[in-house]
Every structure is written in C-alpha cells, then in structure tokens.
Amino acid sequence: MGAGGQMSVDVVNKSEEQKATLQRVPHTQPPFTLGQLKKAIPPHCFKRSLFRSFSYVAYDLFFAFLFYYIATSYFHLLPHPLSYFAWPIYWTLQGCILTGVWVIAHECGHHAFSDYQWVDDTVGLVLHSALLVPYFSWKISHRRHHSNTGSLERDEVFVPKPKSKMPWFSKYFNNPPGRVLTLLVTLILGWPLYLAFNVSGRPYDRFACHYDPYGPIYSGRERLQIYISDAGIFAATYVLYSAAMAKGLAWLVCVYGVPLLIVNSFLVTITYLQHTHPSLPHYDSSEWDWLKGALATADRDYGVLNKVFHNITDTHVAHHLFSTMPHYHAMEATKAIKPILGEYYRFDGTSFYKALWREAKECIYVEPDERAPSKGVFWYQKKL
C-alpha cells in the first residue's frame, strides 16, 4: 500500500475513534458493583505511603525553587530582548509544577496522602494556602461534589443548566468570538470567582462563599475549619504583601502572580474537561445514584503533563470511584477496572486545547433525550 493509501486508512481510523469517543456512555444501572471493581484492583493500590507521598512534595518543591532561583538570579543578566522569552518560559514551567503541588494538596483533602489525618490536613493547609486556596473550605465543598457527582440538583461545581435556565445573553456568545471571550474569562477568573461568589457552583438560597464560615455551604460544626482556612489565606497574603513591599509589585507578579494564574487556568481546564463531554449524562433526582454519577466523568490525555499533574488528568474515573487511593497507584487501578467498566468508561485522547474549544461549542446546556423513555437523564446540547 502506498503512502497515500496508508494516510487514508489512518484518517478513517481516526474518524472512527473520534465517533466512538463521542458516543454516549450507557446511563442505565451498571451490571457491576463498586465492590466488584474494588476486588479487581490489587490490594496494594489502596495502601498509602507517607515516605512516597512526601517524596512527590519534595520533588515538586525542588523544581519550583530551582525555577525561582534561575529566574531571580540569572534573568537580569540576560541581554534585554532575551528576557522577553525567558520569563514566559519560567511562567509556563513554574505554573505546571505548581499545578502538581496543587494536586498533592487536593490529595491531602481526600485523605489519600498518608494514614494520618492530621498529617494530610497539615500538609494540605500549608500547600493550598501558599496557592491562595482555602484548604478546609474547599475540601468540604469538594467532598460534597464527590458525593453528588452528576446530580443536577446537588453537585457542587460545573453544574450544567437546562435550556430554560440559560441567561438571556447566552445566545450572543454562541459564536467563535464569544467562545474565545468566555473561555478567557473562565480560565483566568473562573477559580477565584467560584471561591468568592460560587460562580458555576450549585445554587443556594442565599449568597454562598468559600470564605464565609456562616455561609450556606457549611454546617455549624464545620465553622472552625473555615476560620482556619481563612487564617491560612491571611498568612499567605501577608507574606506576599511583605514580598511586594521588599521587592516591588512587578517582581511579585513576575515571580508568583503569573504562575498562579497558570495554575488556576489549568485547574479550571482539568475540572471542566473531566465533567464536561458530549458523551456524558447528567441526572435529576429521579435517575441519579452515586455509582452512575461517579461514572459520569472522563479521563483525558495531557501528554507529558499527565505525569507533572500526578495523573489527576488520566485517572479521574478511578479517583471518583476510590478517592482515598494515592495518585501513584491510580494508573494501575485504572488498567485493572477498565475491562469491567467497558462502555461505562470514557477516555478522550483529544488534545486538551482542542477539547476545550469543542466542549465550549458542543456543550452549551442539558436537556432530556425526547426519544428516550426516561426523562431524568440529561445530555449536552449545542444550539440555543
């Protein structure tokens, strides 16, 4: 077969693979149980190693401080035009490494870091506070997300709206310029807006904020943890203020601010793509149950960044099924359960930047399938 023939075959194969990726996953009750999935996973995958977990912290922090040292010690020695190239490289590398740090703190919130809750919470509080994340506040709301994934009434974040509840101005953004603007605002401001104003989160009967100990997100017994989270943010803010006073605001923005924006953008991208896909259902209360909701997630491929992000990107389904499993066993666990999951497992190897654009175009709102007997299963639609 000539080169042209082989290319045609490759194109056809890729097209068929894409169709399979976009085919809707089953929404009926799975023919397996959580217990059966757990039995398929080697027992050692559930064991947490304090030493191994700390080794990942040390690894990430080593590179974070290495990049910081190189930038602050040598960039000013470069000929002036070269600094315009050096700083974006630093921002990208530092942003990726600090995203890995964020993931480890997230793992602490799931009690997947060690066998000691106080160790997990101490490490998580320090790491997340350094990235201006209220550790306990987000840990609590994220736990509820895991308990209610895929529920249109009770999930905590990236809850899609039915067509009847879409804002009136949405139709004006359903075009290429509008999608570009929407994605930019979402990636840059989405994370702080969610923490401060519950944007894209579950609707509450009054103002909800991750910094408010008396807000509707939290119960009375959780209040102290919110105060501790806020104290961590105040401490980190004071350190940053002191650095700005000593070194200047421009220095702080270059060394810390821009990498943090990249961390926040990756966090929004990762979370959005894990829970937004044309093939994934959402459920109302008549159809939702925990296992079906946990399976309404997708694994994605970020290339080399999978390792940098500690595989939170390509083992998300396993993470939702067994959230206390440490990340360094998640790949092995995913391989073990994939044969059992079958059609209920969704992996999409589309480049994340292409997937962002496709999902922004294809996943506008959710509606039940009019041809289906059940009206409690909702699917993404792309036209307003």
From TrEMBL:
Pathway: Lipid metabolism. Its main location: membrane. Residues 86-346 form the Fatty acid desaturase domain. InterPro entries: FA_desaturase_dom, FAS_N, Fatty_acid_desaturase. It holds the Pfam family DUF3474. The chain crosses the membrane at residues 56-77, 89-106, 178-197, 249-273. Keywords: Fatty acid biosynthesis, Fatty acid metabolism, Lipid biosynthesis, Lipid metabolism, Membrane, Oxidoreductase, Transmembrane, Transmembrane helix. It is found in: Membrane. Residues 21-62 form the Fatty acid desaturase N-terminal domain. GO terms for cellular component: membrane. The keyword Oxidoreductase applies. GO terms for biological process: fatty acid biosynthetic process. Belongs to the fatty acid desaturase type 1 family. This is Omega-6 fatty acid desaturase. It comes from Carya illinoinensis (Pecan). The lineage of its organism: Eukaryota, Viridiplantae, Streptophyta, Embryophyta, Tracheophyta. The gene is FAD2.
